[in-house]
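Worked Example 4.2. Consider the chain below.
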Amino acid sequence: MEQIAALKEQILPVLNSCGVNLYELKWISNEHTLQISIMRPDGSMDLDTCASVSEQLSDVLDNTDLIPGAYTLEVCSPGAEREVKDIHELKQMEQPYIYVRLKHPVKKMTEITGQVESYEGSTIMISYRDKAATRTAEFDETEAEFVRLAVRI
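Applying the procedure from the previous section yields the following structure tokens:
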């Protein structure tokens, strides 16, 4: 864990200068791979940005003694259906489409997939499809047990 913390200190200035946020940093020891998941503040990411950030991180990491020996650097997006680790990220996104599992039922549902219409204070309003109708549900952010981005099909 000390190595990850030290690596994080090294890479955060590069990520900040590139205008991206760190989603996850992990060391896959059996593959000797350093995996860095990044995203823009709005939650998006593209391949060109990953490649550019990878080049800049390589320059920094190759000049440090934090990683002994050969390793593979993998800079990637956290994915289209990534877990939302901090629910407050939703405030930065433009009406994200999400899946949420609730601690207690809201409108007799403990799972809702839909678009966040508003997030004011600690109240989240989400619109979802129920058969042919569009409905809304409101819940307090503390009621969200698990949240991830969802892909609209």
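The longest helix spans residues 2-18. The mean pLDDT is 92. Compare this with Example 4.1 before moving on.
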